Amino acid sequence: MWLTRPFNERSTQIFLLILTVAVIAVTVLHLAVPAGHPLYVSGYTVGLLGKYLTYALLAVAVDLVWGYLGILSLGHGAFFAIGGYAMGMYLMRQIGDRGTYGDPILPDFMVFLNWDSLPWYWYGFDMAWFAFAMVLIAPGLLALVFGWLAFRSRVTGVYLSIITQAMTFALMLAFFRNEMGFGGNNGLTDFRELLGFDLRSEATRLGLFIASGVALALGYVVCRSIVGSKLGRVCVATRDAEARTRFLGYRVERFQLFVFVVSAMLAGGAGALYVPQVGIINPSEFDPIFSIEVVLWVALGGRASLYGAVIGAVLVNYAKTVFTGVMPDAWLFALGGLFVFVTVFLPKGVAGLLGHLKRRRDDEPTASETPDKEATA
């Protein structure tokens, strides 16, 4: 029942309706409209929009722990990257003897580095079910171990933010090393197919775009289910007054750990959908700057709103696409200016602004409620 509760919420219904209409519209404009028409959506644009949807899912995962649990995670890029690497390992195993060196078992970068056998942690990634399971299990296990140590020790506030950032930075340094067996600085790339479908075909790109939309919808519903349940109310109480919540008898660390693991698994799923659409995964995805940028998406869209996180992710990444194409050197300045603007003028983000406008509209008297001056006289 807790999974079906969000479907009775007006906000969830509106969000799912808008997302469904957007996905269908892009699909129709790509398939039914001829190339060269002003409304035609190219394969490149479909892939770009699919990437935006994976970023939106990542933003929802961050908003779940930051907006409703009060944990400012500066390391969710690590979970995103681990899910991406799990998918990349599967895609590398699917190349087989079609690689540059023709080895049916070892990926090209291992042959180039004179590896004589496949590392044990690559076993099983030639099977889709195992790889797709690891997309969720691997980041979930990392979050479980990290969260258990952190929450058990009652590390909170800025200290928790710092160690999450340290975690992703340490993983970035580790994955840059060639002996780790993940491609080093170049990462994993040159993917050919996914579940037998050619990744270079526009039909596969469209399928991945639709899959990203479905994943975003499912992730949103799961988060709304958690937020709207008793668990969600305990999380909000922990965010607002952790000591008082402990005093009431709640084992706060258990709630924190559960939500943190769910958030990490959602981030891993987003990373797995991101990789086949961009065609590469490398250690730069672990960069702490990326995790900080995700927090900016959530802040712009509106913390503790979920749909606001989606809005922020799409808006910022669209702006990034435009700025890096027109004025690539100005993007970082624009990003910094955007952060200052949100902090000063939109502390509750776009979602807060929309909520304020809605309250003003609801508070305005209707024509029937307006007193008749003549009758009053």
State the main characteristics.
15 helices, 377 residues, two-stranded antiparallel ribbon, disordered C terminus, mainly alpha, 4 strands
Task: Describe the SSE topology.
Blueprint: H1 10-31, H2 43-67, H3 76-95, H4 108-112, H5 128-152, H6 157-175, E1 188-189, E2 193-194, E3 197-198, H7 202-227, H8 230-240, H9 242-247, H10 252-278, E4 280-281, H11 288-301, H12 307-326, H13 331-345, H14 349-363, H15 373-376
Antiparallel strand pairs: 1-4, 2-3
Helix pairs in contact: 1-7, 2-7, 2-10, 2-11, 2-12, 3-5, 3-10, 5-10, 7-10, 11-12, 11-14, 12-14
In short:
The protein has 377 residues and is an all-alpha fold.
Largest sheet, order of strands side by side?
A: 1-4
Beta-strand content: under 5%
Please identify the structural class as seen in this structure. Answer: mainly alpha
User: How many helices does DSSP assign?
Assistant: 15
Label the overall shape.
globular
Mean pLDDT: 88
Largest sheet: 2 strands, antiparallel
Cα-to-Cα separation, first versus last residue: 56 Å
What's the oligomerization state? single chain
Task: Give the number of DSSP strands.
Answer: 4
From N to C, what is the helix and strand string?
Answer: HHHHHHEEEHHHHEHHHHH
Q: List the uncertain runs.
A: 373-377
Rg value: 23 Å
Helical fraction equals 55-70%
